[in-house]
């Protein structure tokens, strides 16, 4: 039996690795082990799980691990993206990333998005709390808040491009309420461009945070609120002592997603400004290195650096908030 | 045990993937006569189902037994660059601009001796290496400035500007006397800024690329880069370009120029026919679209650089090279593609198209740049320096500085460019 459990342990590790791709694998294993107890069934019993695993693993390896391995391989070469020979240059690419101030400057842009993601989480938490109590038209408001997340990123980029144009929607709106002196070139002004883009990002992703928070809040048993009501707790106290502790895990998950998302911002600035006017993010800079300057090796190294940074952020966060057995990622 | 099984599963997976890759056969085309199937990659998604179908019929009638299939690709450069790492990139394709001359032989079939082909064709310098030709240009373009004649004459401009300063003065007249935006950079789309590199050679020096690559300060006063980028800077810093460059759009700039809302844009001569079409669509007179040389004269004459556009080449892995070659020869000599594009024909004795009559009228001297001795040196340097001469990111920065959106001024930026160039040149081992 020892062998069987160890097999199972390995298998469940693989299953965890494969994540959502493998919903069928585990039930198949248990069924096989329960029913086929006969001696001739032993062989089948051992092979069956792996047969089931072949298909999802094939996808996983082909589309995740092989490209990732290639990326790491490219990152130590000087490949230009075309040539058939790739010369190994060791850590040169990584040294260049950490010594070239221009490559590193893009992290400054990420700060805008990190700041914006906190605003975004605050807004989402506020709306989720308000709408978890019985509010008039709450389903309508839920729909309105979640709707932007359903729109394609390219459409959002184009929409906000018109929104921010000189004499576009935003300027007209500000003029209509007598605030014409605050209008500026929202994308042309180097001080305004990053906040404008980050605000677009907030508009887009608040809905997702909102739904995550709302779902978690609604899973809190209603007796707790009733008990709190009887004890004379007001709405804010309910929020502070029931809701926040109840959805702590979702908040910390959102935190990881926000940080890694802020470092990897791409769609909105790429479509709206193409990274011009000091709005290039880390991913846009990576794309420029790869496809404009033909330094695929360097760009791959940048991608590896981004991966490592996100891993570090996640690890640090887990160390700081260890209460996290339920794996929500 | 369990580990072994997993390993077996991995192996099986790889086997599955590999068999998927090696499937597929080839057909037709031994030695001699063209026959069988070929696949032709093209960037012309707009006419692949119309004009190209006529080409197919004519070609197949001339060479019975052949069958041409087109594959039109929207993001041609990006997609084909990636496909070069496989063997599957058609039989005939257009050489992506980022393939270096030293790499041609890895991907393309030699088409013959360059000197032999030069008796019949021009614009061969770009896609040859070591005396061997790898691509034949589909057509050639001249590099100058497209403008709305009506706007310029309404503003009171007489004659073409002969110096950059006169060009600025003319744009100022447009700003003062008309409603039009004098110059439109198309900043946001990036590639229109790359067009500024096109006129290189306007001083009449055919060695301009070699000069640049042997200099540690190509942006020093009096050099071509200094004049080109200095002109952009002056246009923008004098407020002669669009007010908010971050919200520009190429497609809408065409009708705007045709309608006289925009006065001027620096673009290759390929743009003339598109502007004329935009004029027809907008209900204005296509004859208002004019084309002028870069505002610089040497010994009282304009020099206009002409160069090949995309080049047709044969996939080195093609199984039907005979038919592929027949297609390229037919396409270059008989299809009439260059006429359709309003461009200079590849054949030496081809006629100048109507779209460039303005340049002939201005008595310009057409210049073809020399082939550099080390064809990859230029791109080695500008890639390492991260100065995309044929891109536009560093010119976006220039525009930002000129409009006060980034720190610095013309001199400090040129000094910075010179420094980066010198460092990259040292690294490129020249």
UniProtKB/TrEMBL annotation, chain A:
Cited SUPFAM superfamilies: MetI-like
Annotated PROSITE patterns: ABC_TM1
Signal sequence segment: none
Keyword Transmembrane helix: yes
Pfam families (UniProt xref): BPD_transp_1
GO cellular component: plasma membrane
Similarity remark: Belongs to the binding-protein-dependent transport system permease family.
Name listed for the protein in its UniProt record: ABC transporter permease
Annotated organism of origin: Subtercola boreus
From TrEMBL, chain B:
Gene3D superfamilies (alphabetical): Periplasmic binding protein-like II (3.40.190.10)
Keywords linked to the UniProt accession: Cell membrane, Lipoprotein, Membrane, Palmitate, Signal
Position of the signal peptide: 1-23
A Pfam family matched in the record: SBP_bac_1
Domain of life: Bacteria
Protein name: Sugar ABC transporter substrate-binding protein
Species annotation: Subtercola boreus
Top-level taxonomy: Bacteria, Bacillati, Actinomycetota, Actinomycetes, Micrococcales
């Amino acid at each position: 039996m020892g062998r069987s459990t160890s097999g199972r342990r390995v298998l469940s590790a693989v299953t965890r690795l494969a994540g959502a791709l493998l919903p069928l694998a585990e039930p198949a294993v248990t069924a096989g082990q329960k029913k086929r107890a006969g001696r001739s069934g032993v062989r089948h019993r051992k092979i069956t799980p792996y047969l089931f695993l072949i298909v999802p693993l094939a996808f996983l390896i082909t589309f995740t691990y092989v490209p990732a391995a290639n990326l790491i391989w490219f990152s130590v070469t000087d490949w230009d993206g075309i040539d058939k020979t790739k010369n190994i240059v060791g850590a040169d690419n990584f040294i260049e990333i950490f010594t070239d101030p221009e490559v590193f400057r893009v992290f400054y842009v990420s700060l805008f998005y990190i700041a914006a993601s906190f605003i975004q989480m605050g807004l989402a938490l506020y709306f989720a709390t308000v709408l978890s109590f019985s509010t008039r038209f709450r389903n309508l408001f839920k729909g309105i808040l979640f709707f932007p997340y359903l729109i394609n990123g390219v459409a959002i980029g184009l929409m906000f491009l018109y929104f921010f144009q000189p004499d576009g929607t935003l300027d007209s709106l500000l003029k209509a309420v007598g605030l014409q002196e605050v209008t500026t070139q929202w994308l042309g002004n180097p001080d305004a461009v990053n906040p404008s883009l980050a605000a677009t990002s907030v508009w887009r992703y608040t809905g997702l945070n909102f739904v995550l928070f709302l779902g978690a809040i609604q899973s809190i048993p209603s007796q707790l609120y009733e008990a709190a009501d009887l004890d004379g707790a007001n709405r804010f106290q309910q929020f502070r002592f029931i809701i926040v502790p109840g959805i702590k895990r979702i908040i910390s998950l959102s935190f990881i997603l926000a940080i890694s998302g802020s470092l990897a911002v791409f769609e909105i600035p790429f479509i709206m400004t193409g990274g011009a006017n000091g709005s290039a993010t880390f991913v846009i800079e990576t794309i420029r290195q790869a496809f404009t300057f033909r330094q695929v090796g360097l760009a791959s190294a940048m991608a590896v650096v981004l991966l490592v940074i996100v891993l570090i952020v996640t690890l640090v966060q887990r160390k700081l908030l260890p209460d996290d057995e339920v794996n929500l990622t | 045990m369990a580990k072994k099984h997993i390993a077996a599963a991995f192996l099986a997976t790889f086997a599955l993937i590999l068999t998927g890759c090696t499937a597929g056969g080839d057909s037709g085309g031994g030695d001699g006569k063209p026959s069988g199937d070929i696949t032709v990659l093209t960037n012309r998604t707009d006419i692949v189902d119309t004009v190209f179908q006529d080409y197919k019929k004519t070609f197949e009638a001339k060479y019975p037994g052949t069958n041409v299939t087109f594959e039109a690709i929207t993001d041609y450069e990006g997609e084909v660059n990636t496909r070069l790492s496989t063997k599957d990139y058609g039989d005939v394709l257009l050489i992506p601009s980022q393939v270096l001359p030293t790499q041609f032989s890895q991907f393309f079939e030699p088409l013959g001796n360059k000197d032999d082909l030069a008796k019949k064709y021009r614009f061969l310098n770009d896609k040859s290496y070591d005396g061997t030709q790898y691509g034949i240009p589909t057509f050639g373009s001249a590099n100058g400035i497209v403008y709305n004649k009506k706007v310029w004459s309404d503003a009171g401009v007489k004659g073409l500007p002969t110096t950059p300063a006169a060009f600025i003065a003319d744009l100022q007249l447009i700003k003062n006397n008309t409603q039009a935006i004098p110059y439109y950079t198309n900043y946001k789309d990036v590639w229109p800024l790359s067009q500024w590199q096109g006129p290189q050679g306007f001083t009449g020096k055919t060695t301009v690329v070699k000069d640049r690559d042997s200099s540690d300060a190509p942006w020093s006063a009096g050099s071509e880069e200094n004049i080109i980028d200095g002109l952009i800077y002056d246009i923008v810093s004098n407020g002669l370009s669009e007010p908010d460059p971050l919200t520009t759009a190429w497609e809408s700039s065409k009708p705007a120029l045709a309608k006289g809302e925009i006065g001027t844009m620096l673009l290759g001569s390929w743009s003339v026919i598109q502007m004329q079409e935009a004029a027809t669509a907008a209900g204005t007179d296509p004859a208002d679209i004019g084309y002028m040389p870069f505002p610089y004269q040497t010994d009282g004459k304009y020099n206009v650089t002409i160069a090949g556009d995309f080049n047709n080449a044969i996939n080195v892995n093609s199984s039907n090279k005979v038919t592929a070659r027949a297609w390229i020869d037919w396409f270059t000599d008989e299809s009439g593609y260059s006429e359709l594009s309003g461009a200079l024909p590849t054949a030496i004795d081809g006629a100048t198209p109507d779209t460039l009559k303005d340049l002939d009228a201005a008595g310009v001297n057409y210049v073809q740049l020399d082939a550099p001795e080390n064809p990859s040196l230029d791109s080695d340097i500008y890639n390492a320096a991260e100065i995309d001469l044929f891109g536009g990111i560093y010119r976006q920065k220039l525009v930002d500085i000129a409009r006060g959106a980034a720190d610095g001024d013309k001199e400090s930026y040129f000094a910075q460019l010179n420094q980066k160039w010198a460092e990259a040149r040292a690294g490129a081992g020249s």
